[in-house]
Amino acid sequence: EAGVAQSPRYKIIEKRQSVAFWCNPISGHATLYWYQQILGQGPKLLIQFQNNGVVDDSQLPKDRFSAERLKGVDSTLKIQPAKLEDSAVYLCASSFNYGYTFGSGTRLTVV
Amino acid sequence: GNSVTQMEGPVTLSEEAFLTINCTYTATGYPSLFWYVQYPGEGLQLLLKATKADDKGSNKGFEATYRKETTSFHLEKGSVQVSDSAVYFCALGTYTDKLIFGTGTRLQVFP
């Protein structure tokens, strides 16, 4: 079974620039998550999708972050404009029947 | 609300020592409980899980028992190896199918 695919693996941008991350979940997994993991902390849920609908986006900073999941498969997370405090690893995960699988993440550095 | 509290690290042990990493939780309803491991430079991997009270999860010599009376899910291993050096995250799965993580505990094992 293929895992959760994420790209890019690394990204360095200047503050106020925009950036987008892509995630392809495990085939058949209806639920998809984006987490933010700041260095030294546990992952924090940003948004949860069920198919192509949003279940929970209460912790997503909506003034700068957006996410979509077209056709209930792939998803993109965008930050515009980026701030220094957005430097983190962005993890995508998918689940089926309470079994969660994580991608390798995208490490974002904002300078 | 739902939350997870882990003991702060780093935990430093000699090879073959006994390991305990404490985890307690606060939750509404009856959550599932998980331990994830993150090796240096790698993504999150599920180590073990338990879905109901008194269940014991086990994998690779690690064990944790779901204790509802003490709201705990402590991770134990009888004899650690250098290769166990990593960051360990305790997490709970809510009835809305999302994972909430603790802050992580770094384990360092020396030969």
Explained architecture:
The complex is a heterodimer of chains A (111) and B (111). Chain A is 0% helix and 52% strand. Chain A is mainly beta. In chain A, the strands form 2 sheets. In chain A, strands 2, 4, 5, 6, 9, 10 and 11 form a 7-stranded mixed β-sheet that branches. A 4-stranded antiparallel β-sheet of chain A has the order 1-3-8-7, with no helix packed on it. In chain A, strand 5 and strand 6 (53-56) form a beta hairpin. The mean pLDDT of chain A is 94. By secondary structure, chain B is mainly β. Helix content of chain B is 0%, strand content 51%. In chain B, strands 2, 5, 6, 10, 11 and 12 form a 6-stranded mixed β-sheet that branches. In chain B, strands 3-9-8-7 form a 4-stranded antiparallel β-sheet, with no helix packed on it. Chain B has a two-stranded antiparallel ribbon with strand order 1-4. Classes of the chains: A mainly beta (111), B mainly beta (111).
